[in-house]
Protein 1
Amino acid sequence: MGLEFETVIGLEVHVQLATRSKLFCPCSTDYIGAEPNSNVCPLCLGLPGTLPSLNRKAIDLGLRAALALKCSINRKTRFHRKNYFYPDLPKAFQISQYDVPLAVSGSMPITIDGRVKNIGITRLHLEEDAGKLVHSTSDGRLSGAMFSLVDYNRSGVPLAEIVSEPELSSSEEAREYVISLRRLVRYLGVSDGDMESGSLRVDANVSQKCSDGRWGNRVEIKNLNSLKALERALEFEISRQRDLLGKGVEIIQETRHWDDGAGVTRSSRGKEEAHDYRYFPEPDLPAIRIQSAEVDRMAGALPELPWEKRERYAKEWGLNLPDASSLSDNPDVAEFFEKTVASGAEPLLAANWIRTEILRLVNENEVKVLDLSVKPEHLSALLNKVRGGDLSNTAAKDVLGVMAKEGIGLSDAMKKAGVREGGFSTDALEEVVRAILEANPSEADLVLGKKDPGDKKRKFLTGLVMREIRGQASPDAVAAAFEGILESREDMGNAHSH
Amino acid sequence: MEQVAITEKDVLHVAELARLEIGTERIEPMVRYFQDIIGHFKCLEKCDTDGIDPFTDDDMHPCPLREDKTARWGFSGEALESASLSEGRFFKVPAIGGEGE
Amino acid sequence: MDAARIASGIREAEFSAREVIQSSISRIRSLEPTLNAIITPLFEEALSRADRVDRIISEGGNPGPLGGVPVVVKDNMCMKGIPTTCGSRILEGWKPPYDASVVSSLEEAGAVIIGKSNMDEFAMGSSTEHSAYGPTSNPRDTGRVPGGSSGGSAASVAAGYVPIALGSDTGGSIRQPAAFCGVHGLKPTYGLVSRWGLVAFASSLDQIGPFARSISDMALVLDVISNNDPRDSTCSSSERPSFSDCIKDPSVRGKKVGIVREFIGGSLDPSLKGAIEKTASMLEASGAEIVDVALPMSGEYGLPCYYIIAPAEASSNLSRFDGVRYGMRAEASDLITQYIKTRGSGFGEEVQRRILTGTFALSSGYYDAYYLLALKVRRLICSEFARAFERADVILMPASPTLPFRKGELVDDPISMYMSDVFTLPVNLAGLPGITVFTGFEGSGLPLGVQLVAPRFQDSRLLEFAGVIESWAGRPGISPGGDK
């Protein structure tokens, strides 16, 4: 019988908190692009005699994220020292949290194949970031570098570490988890959550459960700098582990490094034994007391979360899951959508128009959706006209375009787009028909003279009319107007011929 | 005072953790010192500490919180002045090799 | 002359600040070859500060309560642009780019810092023989040690270099040298004085405090340095009383003084026993009641408890000294070698011993058996003191088990040296304030002192009791001979 495997993945995600100043000193967190070692002070350089001072906002943001993840908050939480030597760590210890983290035992829903799966959150804790190393090798990597350069600008930036239970079963689930967590932290204003710039980092722990009862050892994977890298690394590692286990070889418990260029995970060099971090409580920081009233207030002030919105859009307004997801993905887009509906627009119609036209305008004009000159109320008014039949889709799109470009209101935009309020009346239509007939005399004569086999010329002329009026009347109305003109022409003709 | 089985291996392991080189001639006295002092530590085991929470801190105020405001130190150049090895605006270290996280 | 007298004399234009500083400088110059109490003299800076004080006075301004008073500060307190060595090779030549909180406070009060004083390396020691800059001699008997680790500051006050000095106390490093040098020395309540800018030894035990030859000077300095400082999260934000006011009319009438019988029996030097007994009867005569209190845990378990916790915290605090950002750096072609050689040659013996035992106590497999156990015992010591303070307002106990020992006597026997702090270190473990009060000299001219301990934040009570004792025992003079 063939050996079968179940993949077990846990993810450790670090997010840089969106505070102005660092975790323990008032240096700015806006270090990207700064001259090396210019965004530092005696404290984040680890100079002797300096002492940490805890940033209130970091606790607030950590709490907010923890509450959104339905964690239990430790009302008395403390920092610990994690001791190890590395040049990017100025004090040779990192102030982090150990056995009494800020929050424990939460969960986050992810959507996989249309189903919702809840992934457990083991803990969320705060810690300070390290500086950055620049290695002297040509590929910028550590191995073989003769020397390295150290920049402490990033040292001390606040991080929240979020650890998931090992409940993810595939690289797709892992990817979804990271996307959901990223969406959440952006929603809450807790972090920029950007993998490329390093404000969101992922380490993965992967192991295999075998159908013959064996449990493969856990392997930690580091250096995952994008969602793509995460997926590819997990795929590779899962294969590697299954392959070895299938051959009866034991998986070494170790840390492996993802080499994106070569597409493989490699055992990290020189990791002889596990670090002995000698954790002990940070004596320079008394325990943090979090007031119940504060927690309750914060829980009450949480915005509607992305998955809550998605569910509500589907339930209340009948959106399908993909549409609900795409509208709730970005908090600004969600706000735009909800305001549009609140102004009276029909939800499905609004959803459709926002997903297509509005987002297209956002891309074209390179602005944020809430900065568009078209406001939700304006869109709502426009959509009501479409719904009432006063405007065709095509016409409405033109009008929207004008509204966005010129920053003018609905009526003005309609005028400018050459679109008529209430569409075309019979008289107005007949005007247009007459004009078209006059501009195309030969075709007109053929139709009038009933020398138009298969109505080809009639169709041509009707088409011209439709184009002229930019679809602002129904084909039936156009046909009726056409008929009306033809009849009167015939009558006139008849009258002349008598 | 109790005798404790601390060996040279134990002491060298600790020296490695602490990134401290002990000259060969000083290892022997260091081992003896360890044995002596840890023998003294052992007497703590006689103390009845049942039910004591090592982290009680009722006599300490809760951690004060700092407002999230930035301040520039503005003397970053001085930071590099203290370094005996630097390159441009960076601190510099020799080959890291197998060190670290 | 004490600090208060100097400050008022300068204010009243009896003499100038420059004259005072010059006098200080010549005293230092003449005695330093013997005493070696100062690592870095700051004569030029001091003279220009003195001139500034004189200018302020001549313009009718107020230079501050310590205007023109020369002071010495232990060399583990950062001063911007001034070498701060902590008595170690590893920080030789390092100039901090910022001032310690207490340094700013002293300077704002008009004090003139005239030197950085010698100390046991990184404050680890009880004799100031573990300094990379040579040992300091006890001014009362130059063949003996001044105590440690703040030996340089204690000696500076005893020798009359300055009327007041700052030291730091983690297990007794102010109180023990104060006793050895025959001056007063106070370790304030943990959290009363900001540790910002104090190079950390053991973070949960360190406190900065004053040496002085008068209790009124001590109160004056404490007023200046005991400010709330938000940069130190362990510093209390409570309002401080005016310590100078508290000791205006010191009285112990109706108060209870606790004596620990076990401490004054046994191997305590007979003259020190005599000092305690005399002090007790004098306090009784002044209206206090003597009661018995017991501190068995402190006596039996205090030493091992301290010698686990302090080195553990120190091992972590001293990890940052690796040659990368400041201080000495050993040449090496790879990082690990740079680390181990820098630290192996930059740190002295005693510091290395403590870093290693501290690392051991925190290491995997030993954390529970040593560090955690020590933390629990610490809680018991705290409760023991709390119970004692239900019966007494202050506790009177020895500051040291012996009179000052001879140079070289204990330097090769570290564990016997540790015994020197047996009466002082429990006070640090419990975070309480403790003061050594000078009570006189014994037959051969060696100084005698006693220690008083009070509950947390009752530093004023300590000063009051000390004031009463001083009115009976008199103020210590300076050595060699005479008074300034």
Protein 2
Amino acid sequence: MVWKKMKSMLPAGSYYFSGAEAIAEGAIAAGCGYYAGYPITPTTETLERISVRFRDVGSVFMQMEDEIASICSCIGASWAGAKAMTVTSGPGFSLMQEGIGYAVMTETPLVVVNAQRAGPSTGQISVSSGDIMQARWGSHGGIPTIALSPWSVQELYDQSINAFNLAEKYRVPVLIMAEAATAHLRERVNIPEEVELFDREKKPGAAPFGTEEDDGVPPMPSFGEGEKLLVTGSTHDAYGVRKTADPAIQGKLTARLYNKIMNRKEEIIEYEGYYLEDADIAVVCYGFTARSALFAVERLREEGIRVGMLRLNTLWPFADAIVRDVGSEVKKILVPEMNMGQIVGEVMKYAAGEVIPYNQMNGQVIYPNTIIEQLRRLL
Amino acid sequence: MATELKQYLRPGVALPFCPGCGHRILLRLILKAIDELEINIDDMLFVSGIGCAGWIPSPHFNADTLHTLHGRAIAFATGAKMFNPKLKTMVISGDGDLVDIGGNHLLHAARRNIDLTVICANNMNYGQTGGQVCSTTPKGAVTQTTHGGSPYRPFDLCKLVNAAGAAYVARYLVSQGSVLVNSIKKALQIEGFCFIEAISPCPTQFGRQNRLDTPRETFKFVERMCITKEDAEGLSPAELEGKIVTGEFSNGRS
């Protein structure tokens, strides 16, 4: 069994953290051994806190020359045996896309946090969720990663731990799609006595890049264990030998990389339903927007209006089954997003009824009143 | 290849290099240095980037190898080395990879004095993509993207890396076998960032486009550009124009 229970690194209790600090503490609790990053608003506080706290816990911190170097050095460290993490925002996330693809191809466990700010380009350092489709399609090749959407400081802590577990379990980069609003928010965080951690599976001599099953997750050795590893971003066979002119091996490898995530959707995907039992209208949302949406839904419920909410805690793989179910139960779905319409396209793919987007990209969070207003228009 | 070096090659893989390629010679010289130092190759990690030179260690060396993204080999190596300092880490890649696209990582690793041995196989062009100009192409040389001759000066890689603060910096031709082996041995023993530029002629792409019809002519052309550090002493900048100075350029931090 590769799951283990560990004492939390901080004494159990209630703490008052910013989101950026909670990410750092979550990573430390998860056993992060290597962190590389580059200063960028709104996650510089994570970098700073890690630089101090890693000295206490004996992990390795590097401030690199850019975000490309940050993610690449994390991948190198991951193969040297570390649980590795890098934290950034939009411009850095764009630079990291090639590295994310390399981690997908080489099945490297890795956690990347993107506290999204208002783009495109330098834009504003205010809030947005403009990078949702980039998390799924940003790196060439289009093979899925896992992307999470925390809505509170507590969840930034919890999801940082969860992200490391998912990364180790499925040998995949896990992206935490945080938002500037939660990165700079200060809230209470409860630290439990123990955390449950998953460490990558090791099996000396076994093929590190192939399994009997067409959706398996192979065991992962580290450098220095005498395995004479061949790690490459080129198409490779089960032992890592480059096969750049063999269509069968390219087909088999990419199918397994896809299937190992998509065939495990049920165990990966998390969501929360609120007041959906008798709802005529549902709000499908994620991240900070879900805080406003829940407030709006509860206010309208007080008036006896039958509205509900589906919150997508996991963005990728997409929660198609529950969206299909909710879509068949309600008459209309409102999808408010701090972008010009991203997840709404996925909702339209799977929900039978009418799906209405609400888009706001002015660098402000979507206020509860705005969502109440939008919902009233649908009555 | 000498039988004592064959033990370091991964069974079942054939060397991919063109006839007359300098990289094949360099591959042998690196293994010879490791063999002479009696280093256990299982204690080593070889990191390479994209391009012909990235194939020197991967998959040919029967050791841990990390074949990375274009330009990023040193960043990957930094992460592995910093997390596990016991890994004796060598980066082997080309000039286009390490200097053109990856130059920033090279400078910063040298500045930080990360304990890496970096061997830059300089073939003066982008060989794998068919011979385009790069930052080490001699001024006036013809490539697929400079048909009238390259209008720009090439980088002096050793000056660049020396200025960035490397512990050991040297440049030799791959045809200078024993001195290059000694230089690699030295680099492997010095703690800190060590950089060796191995001038590795490319007859197939660089040679062909510059009317150097045989590997021998390509080697002769490059050898004629080279001058030892000792012979270069006292020469004026004008006299050194277009010359490649070989020797050790350590900055004394070692």
